[in-house]
Amino acid sequence: MPEELYNSHDYCTLAEELEKLKLENEELIADKIDLCKALEADYAISNRELLILQVEISRLNAELARLTAELSMQKSLVAAREQDLNELYVELAALKSEIVSKDKKVTDYEIELRQLHKYDKTCSTCRYLDENQNCVLGIRCVNYTLWQGRIL
Fold first, then answer.
1. Has this prediction a pTM greater than 0.70?
2. 20 and 73: one domain?
């Protein structure tokens, strides 16, 4: 070994430097421990936040599934109502056609009845109409009901 290592001045300098390094090492270890504790705390907080967010995501997924099912049900109800509405339109068209047909039959019957009895536009009972083309006897007239239907 070299002789300068055994020199007391060098030894003292090295011992002082060693003590400084030990103190610095202890500070670094303390900082490392503090940092690890802070990281563990952050991890715990992050893990807790993650769990909370996972619960929220699960809740939102359940809500989405419920709303999707409700939308599907509403769409099927709308489709059923549209089908009912289309059926009602078909039935309405048939009824309108039937009304037109019956109205034509009534008109034809009225014409035939007028020709058969040779009625003019006067009441067959009193033979006189007021200014509104109503029988002057009104409801007392035996032909009032027929006259209101304009059959006479």
1. no
2. yes
